[in-house]
Structures are given as C-alpha cells and as structure tokens.
Amino acid sequence: MMSRGVLLFCFDTEHTRYHRILEKCVHLIRRNIKLEITVITNYATFKKIKPLGFINYKFIEPELGNTKLGKEWNNVDRHLAYELSPYDTTLVMDIDYFCFTDNLLQFMDTEYDFLVPDQAHDLTDRDTFDHRKWSMIPMVWATVFIFKKSEKSRKIFEMIKYVKKYYRYFNAMYRIYSSNLRNDYVFAIALQQINGFAGYDKFPFALSTLPPDCEVVEMTDDGIAWKHNDQINFIEQQDVHVLNKEVADV
Amino acid sequence: MSKGFLWFAQNNDKTDYVELSVKLAKSIKKRNKENKVCVVTDENSKFESEHVDVIKVLDQDDSADHDIKWANEYKAFELTPFTHTIKLEADMLWPISTDWWWNYLWQHDLVFSVNCFDYRNNVIKDTPYRKLFKRNHLPNIYNGLMYFRRSKKAQQFYNTARDIVKNWNDVKTRMLINCHDRYPSTDVVFALAYRIMDPNMQGLIDYEWFKFIHHKPAIHGLTRMKDHNEYLYPNKAGDAVYVGETRVSRVWHYHDKELHARII
C-alpha cells in the first residue's frame, strides 16, 4: 500500500504567529482530507502549538534572510519537501490554504508525478492575480502541490534546488519584478527548465484566493467570511487560500 | 494509401513563398517518417528542390491579378497526389514529429484545426481577428492546418469552396454580414463551405492537438506592444526555436515573414 500524507511547513516569525494558522489548517485537513499529517517546524514554534493529536513533527532550522514587505519571511525551505516527506505521495500545502472540501484528495491517486496550479481566482472578483506583467515566465502557485516519490519528482526537486541556489541569475534572466525569493517563481522556473521549456503538468483548477486586503472576520468548519471595503462576503464548500496573515487571530 | 503534406506557394511582390516552402519542407522531413511533400505553385514561382517531392504548377491561376494569392486554394482536393493530405500554409515551421497524427486523422474525411494556440500553449478561441466569423456564426477553423482524405465528403466540401470563390462578390455582399475582404480569404471561404455542409457543426472534429501556434500579437495577448517580436524575441538555439520563455513545441505559423529571414 502506497502511503499518502500531507506535509506542512510552519515557522513563527517576529510579526506573525504562524502556529495559530497551522492549528486551523490542521483542523480542516483532519475534517476533510483525512490523511496523515507531517509538520516541518522548529522547536521554538513547536513549543507554542497546542496539542493537535497525532501529528508527525520534523524539526529543522529555517533558512533565514528572506523578506516580504520588509518583514521576516521564512519560506525558503520548500525545496526540502522531497527529502522531508515520509510519504510515497505527498500533498504539500501552505498553512494558509484552508481545505473546506476534500477536492484535493482526488489528485492523490493520479498517474502524474508532480502537479501544481498555475492559476489563481480572486474571490473578490477584481482579477488581481494576473502576474503576466511582473515577469517573463508564467508563475505557478507553489501554495499547493502534489508529488510522488519518483525519479521524475526527484529531478524536479534537484532542479528546484539549483534554481534556488542561483536565483539572482534566474530572477534577472526572467525579468521578475520582485527580487526576494518566491517559491512560486522558483518552482515555475525549475519546471519549465526541466521540461525543456515546453510546458508541464498542472492542476486543472484555479486556486481560490482572498487578496491581502481582505480581513477574515469568521471561519467555520464549512467556510470563511471576510470584510473588504466595509462589505462582508462569505464562501462555503470551497478551498480558500488566505493571503491576509491576520487570519491567525480570528 | 499515400499520405503527405500539401500547400500553395505563389510569390507576390512582398514575399518569396517558395523560400518559405523549402524551409517548411525541410523541417517536416527532418522530424517525420511520413514526410512526402507537394507544393502547388504558378508559372512565375516555379522551382525545384530536393526537399519537395512533388511540385505542381497551376494550369490556370485564378489569383493572377490578385495581390493576395488565395483564390486557388479550393483546388487542393483535385491537385493533391495523396490519398490522405494535411494541407498547410507556406509560412509555417514543423518542429516536432507528428507521425502519430495520421492514426487519428485518417479515420475521418475532413479535420480542421479549430481555434489555435498562443506561444504558451493555451487554446485561444476568441480573437479580434475573427469578428467576421463570430458575426456570421462561422466555425472558428483555420485552413493553415487541415486534413482531408480522398472521399466524397471532402470533394463536396472543396466543390462548395470552389463555388464560393468563383462567386466571391455575390457571397460577400449577399451571404456574409460585414465582409469587406476584397479577395476570397481562404479561412472565410472554408468556414462558410463547412457551415453550408454542416450547419449545426455536429460533425466538426476538434482534436486538442490538431492546432498550430499562431504568431499574431492578439493571440498572445500582446496588443499593447508596438512590436510583439521585440517583447517575445523569437530566436533559434541549435535546432530549437524559442518564443518568449517557451520552446516552440507545436506546429508554428510564424506569419510574420521577416521572422523567417531572421531566425528560421
């Protein structure tokens, strides 16, 4: 029997209590995805996480130095997912991706070695995720991806490491506007390079995403409500990627 | 049961279609086992090339006094030496092996490329170039990549296309809405011919792989650029052609004849 599981990365920073977001994310995975969970974290964060039942914890020290909007952003360890995952098929998710459905489960049993989404849908209908003008390469969303422990996946991760190592070069070559390291671009570049510049396998859906200016006001087991421009809206039975990190306090 | 590729090459004041044809033929032969090529030309453009197996010279050039040489394309059916023909346009490049296509195509009488790809391999259905098609409810097909077999249905199709071309002035004023094409544009002619044969388009076959990359700015979503080639910078490295960040891995209709001189 091939093992399947979810791999999450969680490191608190000075500004954001990511462990609080992790707790919400784990709750929804348990409820809807129902797969074993492994959390990659450090001891400082681990100490703050409330008891969550059976979870595998693996401790690493996050690579520091990356920033987002001037704040510490510990997101550059995603390239280690292949080595760190104990599963044959792994679903890797950002902890701010909330599974209100079991939709992702159906992609755990496909013939694809590596799947990642390349489209995001703005839940506020403002189409804010058209990234064309920000680089010469179509971006993927490394928020959620699924890989199998296979030779092809191993090579993809090797390529991801290579791109990460020489990211300043690739960043300039693909004329990427932001200079900080962003997994979305690292993955996009690696996938494009290793597939001979001619396309790669993608999820057949767009990630439903709440932009950072949407303040989450309520989260239930079925959905999420947010405030934007003094208007309240909500969505249910739909997985949602929340970009506003204040969700930790909801 | 012969199989092969056919297209028309009639030079005009601006473009040497024979030169484009030889390069297209070379690219087909380089990567395909099924690689017989027939080029139809006129007296003025007559040529010989080791890469072209059959060269047919038109007895009568219906586009002799036309600036754009479209008016002979309906003759493809009668001129093809093949049982199974893929019809193309001269300003294309064939960077891949498509031998497997025949296994699907020869099960049908007529297959068109429906819609096209942008350089990032997205299927593009709606473009500003096809307003006439939309207005007239014509199928969004491209004659630049189509298949036909020697069959009654294909013959009927080409006969209908012939009638449209021969009566172009009547057709464009009385049958089509808002059509101002001076000469019978082959895409419009073929789309109308198909619509007449199959009004509900129930028999229109749309294979996801039987399409080409159309190198026009609006197809790529680059209408704001003065010159989309300055942005995408098509270039050749070894055998591969790159457009933007993507290697051209499908049949490429480069369209812009200057590109041919620069990179192909």
CATH topology of chain B, anyone?
Spore Coat Polysaccharide Biosynthesis Protein SpsA, Chain A
Q: What does the average pLDDT of chain A come to?
A: 92
Average predicted local confidence, pLDDT of chain B: 94
Which CATH first-tier class of chain B would you pick?
Alpha Beta
Low-confidence stretches of chain A: none
Question: Order of SSEs of chain B, N→C?
Answer: EHEEHEEHEEEHEHHHEHEEEEH
Q: What's the architecture of chain B in CATH terms?
A: Alpha-Beta Complex
- Biggest interface in this structure? A-B, 10 and 10 residues
Helical content band of chain A: 10-25%
Mind telling me the C-alpha Rg of chain A? 17 Å
**Biggest sheet descriptor of chain B:** 6 strands, mixed
Q: Please list the strands of the largest sheet of chain B in the order they lie side by side.
A: 3-2-1-4-9-6
- Count of separate DSSP helical elements of chain B: 9
Task: Name the descriptors.
heterodimer, A: alpha/beta, six-stranded mixed β-sheet, four-stranded mixed β-sheet, 6 helices, B: 264 residues, alpha/beta, Spore Coat Polysaccharide Biosynthesis Protein SpsA, Chain A
